[in-house]
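Problem 12. The chain below contains 376 residues. Write out its predicted structure in token notation.
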Amino acid sequence: MDLYEYQAKELFRSHGIPVPAGKVVATPGEARAVAAELGAPVVVKAQVRTGGRGKAGGIGTARDPVAAEAEAGRILGMDVKGHIARSVLVEAATVPAAEYYAAFLVDRAEAGFLAMVSARGGMEIEELAVADPGALVKLPIDPVTGVDADTARSLAARAGLPGQAAEVLERLWRVLVAEDALLVEVNPLVQTADQRVVALDGKVTLDGNSAFRHSWDYDEGTDDLESRARAKGLNYVKLDGRVGVIGNGAGLVMSTLDVVAGAGAAPANFLDIGGGASAGIMADGLEIVLADPDVRSVLVNVFGGITACDAVADGIVTALGLLGDRGLSRPVVVRLDGNNAEVGRRILSDARHPAIRQAATMDGAAETAARLAAGA
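Solution.
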């Protein structure tokens, strides 16, 4: 269960972690009123469950209430990487003297917990890990002893954070444990000119399986693509990559995600169309996947069983026809295997649709989709 930034900050505040004063609003007029209450300048931030809001134009500054109203009007309704901003957080602007990064998370690979801290906050952690791996301190956390004051001070010192940050690190760990979170992240965690350490952003993922132990009143919600997919009866989960993935059967789709990753690309979604890949279902699936602006290529991986591959192929051709120009916008790599696969491949070949690329194997399809997504 991913929280919006304002929800994460409410948790931080309840655990004694300093955050800027602010309120979440849903209209430009409300943004103006909050800005007047807080005093200028303020920051207006789209409340969407995705990163990269600043780069996408989802964060703006305002010097006065009138400007805050204008910024809110600009941001509300904005599509931020497939997520529609239906509310904004208006909060007092904070001028950082230094920016840091801090996170605690469940490390599934090691069946434990991991702390990640850096004196270079403000940039995407993935970019930092590549550009300067030594700048990111990673420390496994013993689930029994956890993060006490001494551990927090040691972690802050190793990462080059000021001593004042240690208490915040300790409290971030408490959020992870007390709230049954899978991830607690602050980027940036800043130090101000008067030596205060403040969480300017917040990302928290709660373990929904522990909801029975809490009094959370959060709407788990989904992004708009997931909501649209659910309305169409599709099993869709948005991810962060560039290769759209469609398959029939959860196991096959999961395998396809792994193969796409092995080909050097990141999947943009999980989409299981189930056993009945009719033209309508395929059209709905392709429409959802192609509505994601991050998608650069689509991989359709189908093993014909109850539904034969010739029916699947007819569905793909019909779907692309129904989508019109949207069906031409990005290449669609198709791998068919199983019942009537040869007939299905012939149907795709005879269609001569410019968006369709065929591949004989799953690996070959993933490699082609990855290459096309990279623009090669």
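Discussion. DSSP finds twelve helices and 18 strands in the chain. Students who got a different answer should revisit the alignment rule from Section 12.3.
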